[in-house]
Design brief:
Elements lengths: L1 E11 L2 E7 L14 H9 L3 E7 L9 E6 L1 H33 L5 H27 L7 E6 L12
Parallel strand pairs: 3-5
Antiparallel strand pairs: 1-2, 1-4, 2-3, 4-5
Helix pairs in contact: 2-3
Length: 160
């Protein structure tokens, strides 16, 4: 289980909306501050991220909690998000070149590959939209409020 601390900002039925702070993995790296990831973090800053999590710990608004997601769920979602557009792009380019490029004897092969790549990429994004909607209800891909952190001071939420 991958865990992240946060604060409950609202409750919606069996779900809690938890605000966590976006962090990079730079804390334990020897090149801290000298890599591209740290430059991006400095440019965009640390912003709060809202996560919809199943409220198994029965946390209340304003409480510090620990939100977790299973490694299996994170791995499968990451695999889909990174691999599907790549496969769509390359597969579409090969299909466009093979279908149209073969009929025109290479005259429009580059244009056919480009159009095929764009169509393949668009289809991959469309598939990802459906995958995201289906994974919304899968328990292994949902964030869960693991526990309430008792005795810790609660920070004041922005805008409250």
């Amino acid at each position: 289980m991958i865990e992240e601390p946060g604060i409950v900002v609202s409750i919606e039925g069996p779900y809690a909306h938890v605000e966590t702070e976006r962090r990079s993995a730079c804390g334990g790296c020897a090149a801290h501050g000298a890599c591209g990831t740290s430059l991006i973090e400095r440019f965009f800053g640390r912003r709060a991220v809202r996560v919809r999590a199943l409220n198994q710990a029965q946390a209340a608004v304003g409480e510090r909690v620990v939100v977790g997601i299973s490694e299996q769920g994170l791995l499968s979602a990451s695999f889909a998000v990174y691999l599907a557009p790549l496969v769509g792009l390359v597969g579409g380019a090969l299909a466009g070149d093979g279908l149209i490029g073969g009929f025109t004897a290479g005259r429009y092969a580059d244009a056919a590959a480009l159009v095929g790549a764009l169509l393949g990429f668009a289809l991959a994004l469309f598939w990802l939209r459906g995958y995201s909607a289906r994974s919304w209800s899968r328990p292994e891909q949902q964030a869960v409020v693991c526990r309430v952190e008792r005795g810790l001071p609660v920070r004041i939420l922005p805008g409250s």
